[in-house]
TrEMBL record:
GO terms for molecular function: serine-type endopeptidase activity. InterPro entries: 6-blade_b-propeller_TolB-like, AB_hydrolase_fold, Peptidase_S9_cat, Peptidase_S9B_N, WD40. The lineage of its organism: Bacteria, Pseudomonadati, Pseudomonadota, Gammaproteobacteria, Cellvibrionales. Residues 1-26 form the signal peptide. This is Peptidase S9 family protein. Residues 472-678 form the Peptidase S9 prolyl oligopeptidase catalytic domain. It comes from Kineobactrum sediminis. Coiled coil: none annotated. Keywords: Hydrolase, Protease, Serine protease, Signal.
């Protein structure tokens, strides 16, 4: 006979519960190969009933080393999440028809980018164009019968003299290229094609596109339709000196039947991002009065559709307003702005009473924690936006006016990043040693962080310089943390999201006291005790590369530095970068030959005689924003001085080195490899 035994089940059940709750797989570190697994959402579009969102889903193609994008749809209750397009191509410029059933977008065929329309109820697809040039910025007419877009209208390239006739089948060199334009190159695309961007309309049922703007001007800005579908509103720079004064855009009214163009604004400064009220009577737009400053904030305006009754809304909001959108009833405007390293969605009535609707917008920049967000407005007070956080790139979030509930509709990286052990981000309070200003900074700690230990530190500096970092997902910083570094990043003076005065502290003074802000942040972090003061490293890209070179000319506290895509000599930069008129006008106010001392005293090359820090230079070979010659100057200067230095040239890369996933990984590998030499 078996004797029953009393068993205490409490501890056993607790153990079983703990085991069942434990993950089957322990979280693994974030690695460079994980970059190819990242996804993010952008470009949300809402229907007129507030029932459905379309958006672009971006992924990485590991076999072609390229980002890819397809169009997806999801109901605003989170159901019926499925693709509209699939495959290895790229979709851009999605635009939903007023009937909510047709969506237009740009996608490549065998000849190049073309305009397509998909029917959401049936899945049928129609290719509307077979164009020689790429259409962009698609906008449906309110009656649903037409789509407006912009496209290059080519012009013959200039020639100089006459060449002899080429014999049949002869293999000659390419003919000489004649350059007469002030701005003739663009980073990321190279030599600009000859011609002008114009606005076209095409029947939504197919047919020939018709050009509706004329003249030797680029109509590259926003497009809006009048309520009667007979008039377009466009933003363009049609001023006589548009090649020199590149920012001076205005709003124009274009009558489709006649092609008549009427200017609605005429101030000195840009006007753009036009949005037409649902009843067609009013326009909203953003712009600023040009005061020749390095930074101007966008201001929000409304006016009648004939250009009368202009009025600024929210004049006291000292932030850069972006992407105005009308509510479906025409009573409110939605927009977003950056605020202290965060991005905010807000709305205002037409009297200027503002309501904050959401924070944490962004997540579209995978490499470094820059701002960048998209918003959409639909019917019944609905809105959608891209939002991310320190642990994940952008997803789509939905909400309605009058409700505090926000529903995240996508979780694009949950099956991946939820199983990665990421570095944690915390904010660091900093007081500048220069003038006691509050400076915002953040710290990323390694996944296995122990505050009782001491870690090497990387100071990573943002570019711009008029830009901002925040507590956002950043693959590069996570890879630094996974390698065992504490990462410090800062919004020094000159950063955006703190108002015009703070940004313009570096007006004609960059680099300057932003150096003190950065060093104060390093000192504040060292005071916490978990960073080894003998293991400090510094890097940054673009403006951050410029500041890195400036820093090592001012101090030897860093064991090694990586100067990425920098400006080293302001005179050579202004005369070789892809937008010389802008940089000369706003960043200096004088030409290099008019005040060479001002250019030289702000150039990191002027301090190269002080440098003792081992320095790696890293730049894309096709960079036209901060051209390779800037990097080469500094590299040669360091070598001539006998400083331990090296140069990494990224083949085929422009200023955005991390556009291709493998080059993001290659950039991080080079930075970590250089720093490891000196640990």
């Amino acid at each position: 006979m078996f004797r029953a035994r009393k068993i205490t089940v409490g501890p056993l059940l607790a153990l079983l519960a703990a085991l069942s709750a434990a993950p089957v797989w322990a979280a693994s570190p974030f690695t460079a190969s994980d970059v190819f697994q990242l996804s993010y959402a952008s470009s949300p579009v809402l229907d007129s009933k507030g029932k459905q969102v379309l958006y672009l889903r971006h992924t990485m193609d590991i076999m072609r080393d390229q980002p890819r994008s397809n169009l997806w749809r999801v109901n605003t209750d989170g159901s019926d999440h499925r693709p509209v397009t699939t495959g290895p191509g790229n979709v851009s410029s999605p635009a939903l028809a007023p009937d909510g059933n047709r969506v237009a977008y740009v996608r490549r065929d065998d000849t190049g980018p073309q305009l397509f329309v998909s029917w959401l109820d049936s899945g049928q697809v129609a290719q509307l164009t077979r164009l020689a040039e790429a259409p962009a910025n698609l906008v449906w007419s309110p009656d649903g019968r037409s789509v407006a877009f912009r496209m290059l209208v080519p012009e013959p390239a200039p020639t100089m003299g006459e060449l002899p006739d080429k014999p049949a089948d002869a293999e000659w060199a390419e003919p000489p290229v004649v350059v007469e334009r002030t701005v003739y190159r663009s980073d990321g695309s190279g030599i600009k094609p000859h011609g002008y961007q114009h606005v076209f309309v095409i029947p939504a049922a197919g047919g020939s596109p018709r050009q509706v703007t004329t003249g030797d001007y680029n109509h590259s800005g926003s497009i809006g339709w009048a309520a009667d579908s007979k008039v377009l509103f466009v933003s363009a720079n049609r001023n006589p000196d548009w090649q020199q004064d590149t920012k001076n855009t205005d709003l124009y009214r274009v009558v489709l039947a006649t092609g008549d163009i009427e200017a609605l604004t005429d101030r000195k400064g840009p006007d753009g991002q036009v949005a037409v009220a649902p009843d067609g009577r009013s326009l909203a737009y953003v712009g600023w009065d040009d005061r020749g400053l390095g930074y101007h904030r966008n201001r929000l305006y409304i006016m009648a559709a004939d250009g009368s009754d202009r009025k600024e809304l929210l004049a006291d909001l000292d932030r850069n307003i972006q992407s105005p959108r009308w509510s479906s009833d025409g009573q409110r405007l939605f927009f977003h702005y950056d605020d202290r390293g965060d991005t905010v969605l807000a709305s205002t009535d037409l009297s200027g009473r503002m309501q904050v609707l959401a924070r944490g917008l962004g997540g579209k920049q995978l490499g470094r924690p820059y701002a960048g967000a998209d918003i959409a407005v639909g019917g019944a007070g609905s809105f959608a936006y891209t939002a991310g956080n320190a642990g994940t790139p952008a997803d789509i979030v939905f909400g309605r006016l009058g409700s505090d509930q926000r529903q995240q509709l996508t979780h694009l990286n949950a099956n991946f990043l939820d199983y990665r052990d990421l570095g944690e981000i915390s904010e660091l309070a900093v007081t500048s040693s220069f003038d006691d200003r509050d400076i915002q900074a953040w710290v990323v700690t390694p996944p296995d962080f122990d505050p009782a230990r001491q870690y090497p530190m990387i100071l990573e500096i943002h570019g711009g310089p008029f830009a901002n970092y925040g507590p956002r997902f950043a693959a590069e910083l996570q890879l630094f943390a996974a390698a065992g570094y504490v990462v410090l990043y800062v919004n020094p003076r000159g950063s955006t999201s703190y108002g015009e005065e703070f940004a313009n502290l570096i007006h004609h003074n960059y680099p300057g006291e932003d150096y003190d802000d950065l060093m104060s942040a390093v000192d504040a972090l060292l005071a916490d005790g978990y960073v080894n003061p003998e293991q400090l490293f510094v890097t940054g890209g673009s403006g951050g590369g410029t500041l890195t070179a400036w820093i090592i000319g001012k101090t030897d506290r860093f064991r090694a530095a990586v100067v990425a895509k920098p400006v080293i000599n302001w005179a050579s930069f202004v005369l070789t970068a892809d937008n010389s008129p802008y940089f000369a006008r706003y960043w200096f106010g004088e030409m290099p030959w008019e005040n060479p001392e001002a250019y030289w005293e702000r150039s990191p090359l002027s301090l190269v005689g002080n440098v003792t820090t081992p320095t790696l230079l890293l730049t894309g070979e096709n960079d036209l924003r901060t051209p390779m010659a800037e990097t080469e100057q500094y590299y040669q200067a360091l070598k001539l001085r006998g400083i331990d230095s090296a140069m990494v040239r990224m083949p085929g890369a422009g200023h955005l080195i991390a556009r291709r996933p493998s080059q993001l990984a290659g950039k991080v590998a080079a930075i970590l490899g250089w720093f490891e030499r000196y640990r």
